Amino acid sequence: MKIIRVKDEIEGGQEALALFKDQVKQGAHVFGLATGSTPNTTYQALCQSDLDFSEAISINLDEYVGLSHNDPQSYYSYMVEHLFKQKPFKHSYLPDGTNEDADEECQRYSRIIAQNPVDFQLLGIGRNGHIGFNEPGSPFDGTTRKIKLTESTLNANARFFANEADVPRYAYSMGIGEIMQAKTILLEAYGMNKADAIQKTIEGPVTPNVPASILQKHPNVYFILDEEAASKLSK
Ligand code: PGA
């Protein structure tokens, strides 16, 4: 585990860009991508860089159930806006939130992940320690499934919607078992509201109550943390 401490998310984005460049140099071809406010500065840095993803593949962690790709609140729209418009990939995969057959959609997405092993996975972390939408209690060996979002996640995500009632209650999310298959993982966290989750993730016991704590078992994981997110670490 390698912890990179930064002043703020702007510097974090530059550190993440350096890791992306290093990965590309090493031949990384499949990138696992995340949404939310955390990766914004990373995507800005990627967009301003000379990196070319036109022969690469991206696979996103999750998508809200019920939102179509065209919905401005969908994670698909987020990715177009923040990255794909400027840095298109050869193929970009996200779960299809409009597929009402959850079993079919989850199996389809798990097949895509199995056929395109992720070289470099980008992650944020929820205040409750979730990765992707794998909420506390999610199995460490889980594959893609339909997940009921917790109150904490609904509250956190309400800021992106006009009313909290508009926040979708379910998401399709890559499972922790699939996330852990990535060859290298980068988790970024910024701000005080992530400090508890980061302390438990890095220094606490490995437990499904803190989904990200499983990263302690991954052989190749980087954390980029600002001072606030790192403020509860003992060292
Ligand atoms: P955030 O979400 O980047 O919007 O804080 C991260 C997450 O919930 O995984």
TrEMBL record:
Swiss-Prot/TrEMBL keywords: Carbohydrate metabolism, Hydrolase
Keyword Transmembrane helix listed: no
EC number(s) reported in the record: 3.5.99.6
Catalytic reactions on record: alpha-D-glucosamine 6-phosphate + H2O = beta-D-fructose 6-phosphate + NH4(+)
One Pfam entry name: Glucosamine_iso
PROSITE patterns named among the record's database cross-references: GLC_GALNAC_ISOMERASE
Task performed by this protein: Catalyzes the reversible isomerization-deamination of glucosamine 6-phosphate (GlcN6P) to form fructose 6-phosphate (Fru6P) and ammonium ion.
Protein name stated in the entry: Glucosamine-6-phosphate deaminase
Species in which this protein is naturally found: Ligilactobacillus ruminis
Originating gene: nagB
